[in-house]
Specification:
Elements lengths: L2 E8 L6 E7 L9 H17 L6 E6 L2 E7 L4 E8 L4 H18 L2 H4 L10 H8 L3 H4 L1 H59 L2
Length: 197
């Protein structure tokens, strides 16, 4: 599970403009990183333009998924991740990022700019959300529940195995008890037989 791109795109103008973005291209070869970075920006702008205000969508492209969230303020949040990244976590992050961006930059600040706006929180989020289970509390709880379930299954299995072991020991002790009774009977018979000789 990997996040490759988080960005905010202005969608009211044609062509769309990337207001801020952060990329993690460590999964790609060092010689092709610039190319992949440029393609991600291009795909992000295209998908953002096709995302209506209030709409959320996930578009699969090869082994990646583009998660988009359009807002009525004229921007769209875009995340590009691998196919294994949970869509729920991606959309929660999109909501958070777009809300924070809009609280820092009102519509007046970005409506006519052609510059990239500084938004350092993206760097923090792209690092923090690489592991969605650590970033998302629901996934974290689910992981802990799964781990607890595994431990409980192991414990139940070991108790059942111990129960089988106890059953076999009881059977063996019953057998030994029967053998010892037989032994005492035979000893008693031998003693009686010796006395009469």
């Amino acid at each position: 599970m990997k996040l490759h791109y988080i960005g905010i795109i202005r969608i009211e103008t044609d062509p769309a403009h990337e207001l801020c973005a952060e990329k993690d291209l460590s999964a790609y070869n060092i010689f092709t990183r610039d190319t992949y970075g440029g393609l991600m920006s291009l795909f992000a702008k295209r998908v953002a333009q096709r995302t209506r205000p209030g709409q959320r969508q996930d578009i699969k492209e090869d082994s990646n998924v583009i998660h988009a969230y359009g807002r009525t303020e004229g921007v769209a949040g875009i995340i590009i991740s691998d196919a294994d990244y949970p869509a729920l976590v991606a959309h929660q992050l999109l909501s958070k990022v777009v809300d924070e961006f809009l609280s820092q930059y009102p519509r007046i600040a970005f409506i006519s700019t052609t510059e990239i706006l500084p938004f350092p929180q993206l760097k923090e989020y792209i690092v923090k959300y690489q592991d969605p289970q650590q970033a998302d509390s629901i996934m974290k709880i689910q992981k802990e529940l799964d781990e607890t379930k595994i431990v409980l299954h192991k414990t139940i299995n070991s108790v059942l195995e111990r129960g089988e072991t106890i059953d076999s020991l009881v059977e063996k002790s019953d057998g030994l008890s029967a053998q010892s009774k037989m032994f005492f009977k035979q000893v008693g018979l031998l003693v009686v037989h010796r006395v009469f000789e």
